[in-house]
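User: Hi! I'm working on a homework problem where we have to compare a predicted structure to a textbook description. Could you give me the structure for the chain below?
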Amino acid sequence: MRTRTFLASLLIAIFCLPMMSGCATRQGAIQQLQSLSDDLRDNASYYTIKDWENAANKLGTIRKKMAHYDYTPAERRQIGELEGQCVRYMVEGAKNKAINGVMGIGNEVRGILEGLGISY
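Assistant: Happy to help. Predicted structure tokens:
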């Protein structure tokens, strides 16, 4: 009798495993998006051009994964919010890099002018 119960439990577990892993993968994509958003929030000011390319590729990969699943309206709202945060952090990071680049060039030009003895 114990053997039958064990086998029945084993069969149920085998048939339920794909359903559980599908849910975990579906939620895993949301968790990856959350992780990317957190990373951008915390580290965007230190990103190099290569880091920005990797972040954009990672966002694209996550979106492709998400396209394979049906999400509830609440999950879709969460996804939209996280994607919005990622885009905001990317835009802010690009803006800050551009401003810092311009300021760096401006300071360099000032140094050159001072070195030449030209007042501005």
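For your comparison, note the following. The two ends are 95 Å apart (CA to CA). Helices lie at 2-43, 49-66, 73-115. Good luck with the assignment!
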